[in-house]
TrEMBL record:
Protein name: Type-5 uracil-DNA glycosylase
Annotated signal sequence range: none
Keywords, alphabetical: 4Fe-4S, DNA damage, DNA repair, Hydrolase, Iron, Iron-sulfur, Metal-binding
Membership in a protein family: Belongs to the uracil-DNA glycosylase (UDG) superfamily. Type 5 (UDGb) family.
Origin superkingdom: Bacteria
Keyword Nucleus carried by entry: no
Domain Uracil-DNA glycosylase-like: 48-225
Stored InterPro entries: UDG_Type-4/5 (IPR051536), UdgB-like (IPR044147), Uracil-DNA_glycosylase-like (IPR005122), Uracil-DNA_glycosylase-like_sf (IPR036895)
Length: 240
C-alpha cells in the first residue's frame, strides 16, 4: 500500500490543465453555476479518485458530472448517479452511509476505490477520444499504485470499459485476446506476470438514462457489486 503515493497522485490530477476544451468547460460551469447551487463554491478542477489506498475493489465510471463531481470535488458526489451508486454500496456493506452529498459529509468506503478514465467534466458528458487518451496516464498510475491490494474491478458503461482495458494493460495486467466485450454482467480475468489476477466485471452505467428507464435496477447493481466484492476476497452484505 502506497498511501503517500496515491495522495500525491490525487494532488497532481487536481492541477491538470492538459485538455483546453475540458478546462474551459469545467471552469465556465464553476463560474455560471446551476441556480440550485448559486450560493455554493464549485470545485471546478479535475476530480481525483475517492477511496482508501488499500482498496481490493475499484469502480471505474466515465467522468465527473458538471454539477456533481465538478461542483463537490469528489467522484459521483452531489448528483443522482452518485445517489444510486452509493446507496448500492451502502446496501452491500461497502460504504458507511447511503448518500454522498459533499466532500465533507463523512462518507467512508470500505475496501473500495471509485475513479474514472476522464477526470474533468466534459460538455454533454461526452469526452473526445483524444481527451480520453490524454487522461489515461492518470488512471494507469492509479491502478499501478492499487496493484498490491486490488483484486477486482467494476466498470460502469461501455465508454469506461473501452477506456479501462488499455489502462489495465499498461498497469501490468494481461488483457485477453480477443478483448472482452462489454455487457452488463460481463466477466473476464486479467492475469498478471508478477502478481495475482484481476477480476473484471461490466455493469450498465448508473446514469439517469439507465436508472430511470429500468435498464439498470438497484438489484442489478447490487448483484454486480456483490459478485465483484466476493471475488476480491471481501464479505459483502447479502441483504439490501
Amino acid at each position: 500500500m502506497d498511501s503517500e503515493g496515491l495522495a500525491r497522485l490525487d494532488r497532481r490530477i487536481a492541477g491538470c490543465r492538459a485538455c483546453p476544451r475540458l478546462v474551459a468547460w469545467r471552469e465556465e460551469v464553476a463560474r455560471t453555476k446551476r441556480a440550485a447551487f448559486a450560493d455554493r463554491t464549485y470545485w471546478g478542477r479535475p476530480v481525483p479518485g475517492f477511496g482508501p489506498p488499500d482498496a481490493r475493489l475499484v469502480i471505474i465510471g466515465l467522468a465527473p458530472a458538471a454539477h456533481g463531481g465538478n461542483r463537490t470535488g469528489r467522484m459521483f458526489t452531489g448528483d443522482r448517479s452518485g445517489d444510486v451508486l452509493y446507496q448500492a454500496l451502502y446496501d452491500v456493506g461497502l460504504a458507511s452511509r447511503p448518500t454522498s452529498e459533499d466532500a465533507d459529509d463523512g462518507l467512508e468506503l470500505y475496501g473500495v476505490r471509485v475513479t474514472a478514465p476522464v477526470h474533468c467534466a466534459p460538455p454533454a458528458n461526452r469526452p473526445t477520444p483524444a481527451e480520453r487518451d490524454a487522461c489515461r496516464p492518470w488512471l494507469v498510475q492509479e491502478l499501478r499504485l492499487l496493484r498490491p491490494t486490488v483484486r477486482a474491478a467494476v466498470v460502469l458503461g461501455a465508454f469506461g470499459w473501452q477506456a479501462a482495458l488499455p489502462a489495465f494493460a499498461e498497469a501490468g495486467w494481461t488483457v485477453p485476446r480477443p478483448r472482452p466485450v462489454f455487457g452488463h454482467g460481463a466477466h473476464a480475468e486479467l492475469d498478471a506476470a508478477d502478481g495475482p489476477p484481476l477480476g473484471l466485471h461490466g455493469c450498465f452505467h448508473v446514469s439517469q438514462r439507465n436508472t430511470f428507464t429500468g435498464r439498470l435496477t438497484p438489484e442489478m447493481l447490487r448483484d454486480v457489486l456483490r459478485t465483484a466484492a466476493t471475488e476480491a476476497g471481501m464479505r459483502p452484505a447479502e441483504q439490501g
